[in-house]
From TrEMBL:
Keyword Transport: yes
Pfam families per UniProt: SBP_bac_8
Signal peptide: 1-19
Lineage: Bacteria, Bacillati, Bacillota, Bacilli, Bacillales
Location of the protein in the cell: Cell envelope
Name under which the protein is recorded: ABC transporter substrate-binding protein
Organism: Sporosarcina thermotolerans
SUPFAM superfamilies xrefs: Periplasmic binding protein-like II
Entry keyword annotation includes RNA-binding: no
Annotated PROSITE patterns: PROKAR_LIPOPROTEIN (PS51257), SBP_BACTERIAL_1 (PS01037)
Family affiliation: Belongs to the bacterial solute-binding protein 1 family.
Amino acid sequence: MKKLSLLVFIMMVSVLLVACNYNKNNTSTKTTDTVKTEANKPVEVEFWHAMSDTHEKWLEEATAKFIAEHKNVTVKLVNQGNYGDLSQKLLAAAKAKTSPTITQAYAEWMTDYNQHNLVVDLTPMINGKNGFPADQSYEDISKVFRDDNTFGDKILGLPFNKSSRVLFYNKKYFEDNGLTPPTTWDELATAAKTLTKEIDGKKVIGMGFENGMATELSMWIEQAGGEFVDEQQGKVLFNSEAGLHALTFIDTMLKNGSARMAGEDGYMSGPFTRGDVAMYIGSSAGIAFVAKDAGDMAWSTTPLPKGVKQAAPFQGTNITMFSNSTEAEQAAAFEYMKFLITPENTVDWAKTTGYLPVRESAQQSSDWISFIKANEPFKAGNAQYAYGFIDVRLPGSFAMKNAMQVELDKMLYENATPAETLKSMSTKAQEALDKAK
């Protein structure tokens, strides 16, 4: 994936993008079946996304419903592949002045877009006549997700597909060995050792770690009681006692054989559903994929075991709006963005995909509560809102994690010590952030 800092270069060599002059006193309103535009002319909203499989099917069906309810609005869904593909195509579109109306975007992408005046501040829309109805207020969106979309005094997006990391575990393996789901790092390490053995004629490894571990290292640092990065100062902080504790914990399990990386399997869900590993930490958005492949295997999820403290990263993309769109397109797009996260829709999305409801009212609704009671794997993510945090949103964050992964791999696969790895990761991470400034 190209570094996000490439956008800086693109903007230096390209002609300054002409941002739409957004009318902060926008008076567009929505009737029961249409969005008011100039002379009610048809308007098309182009939405670039990276959803696939069950997730894309839900999006297509929800979009069809929205179009049926808004006679003069068409939403054109454009699948741009994976997130790496989407990022690169958005950069190319910015250079060519052909950005879509809206797109899925991680917050660190939005930081870069904002610095170059590419995206629309939604604050006037949120506070205006076409803002959220009282029973679906903006404040009803969970704070962790509002924080992810707030940049200074601007609101640059609305949350969409949001997930948390959870611990997937094989219930039969645990029950047969007299174990309960681990709630602390010590319990996790003990369970991993106990379950690393031959079970039912199969060689089992107790714990599995996903490839690309650098993307979730902030989770381990936070749980160890440390700080990952100072976002205000753009300073790397994880080269600390807590950072060393986190890396040593991971390294010890890998070295004693009670844990393994996903490796050539690509994702740990494969070894898990085959019964090759007893547990692994993964995204709650993977629930649908595990359910599809697990067959009759008894499995579930549990909240992340804590170290010094509980800490759960909330990840996933938001939907942001580009400023090269017309005012009519923006008004229609805002209605669509709100529609995707109505209490009813965000619950249905969560039930279908394993992502999480983004509204507090949805999380507390009888529909969602009864669903997670009947579908145990969905409970863990829902339990972690109280101690959830968002990832670093600085320009260069992806480049930072890529650089960190190169150094981390030396510990995971080449026997570098945790102390050596921590120092080199910290240096490379700071260089990547500094380069993107």
